Amino acid sequence: NTLHNRRAVFARAFQLPLLAIFLFCFFTRLDENQRSVFDRLGLILETLVEISLATAITVMNLCTPMRDLFDRESQEGMYGPSAFLLSYFLHSVPFSVVSSLLWTCLTYFLIGLNLQTAKWFIYFAAVTLLHLLSECLAVFFLGVCKSIQTADSV
């Protein structure tokens, strides 16, 4: 059970907010000039890259023991892949939402992006969907590849 592993809970919930603090060091309060347009585009690119890679690395480290357990238990006929995937994603969605919420609050308000509620929710939805999609892809590649090194390099 992942909830009993404090390191796993910390990694799932606070890895992205800690990365957002480092991102804040480079993108503090953007002005309204030509240079800030490029800085905002860089922020969006960094958001895409950091969320995708950090989520994939976390899943690779935390899901491998569960995958091995699933292999053993599915060979004994205890449950199938759909039950495993459903339980895994029901377990991981709250962590993804909390982590995305903290990331969104840190990057959106501390950097000084447009302070409109609708735009904040759009940014939050995009970050959450990116986080969940990265997690789905990492679990998929772990399921397809037997070696974690192969899954990590793909």
Write the layout of secondary structure elements.
Blueprint: H1 6-26, H2 34-75, H3 81-111, H4 117-144, H5 148-153
Helix pairs in contact: 1-2, 1-3, 2-4, 3-4
Strand content: under 5%
| Biggest sheet features | none
Query: What is the overall shape?
Result: elongated
Q: What is the gyration radius calculated from CA atoms?
A: 18 Å
The number of helical runs is 5
Average pLDDT taken over every residue: 78
Low-confidence stretches: none
Write the element-wise H/E pattern from the N-terminal end onward: HHHHH
Alpha-beta content class? mainly alpha
The count of DSSP E runs of length 2 or more, i.e. the number of strands, is 0
Helix content: over 70%
Question: How far from one another are the termini?
Answer: 27 Å
Give a structural overview.
The protein is mainly alpha-helical and 154 residues long. The protein is 83% helix and 0% strand. The protein contains five helices and no strands. It has helices spanning 6-26, 34-75, 81-111, 117-144, 148-153. α1 packs parallel to α3 and α2 (34-75) runs parallel beside α4 (117-144). The longest helix is centred in the middle third of the chain and has 42 residues, at 34-75. It is elongated, with a radius of gyration of 18 Å. The two termini are 27 Å apart. The model has no long low-confidence stretch (mean pLDDT 78).
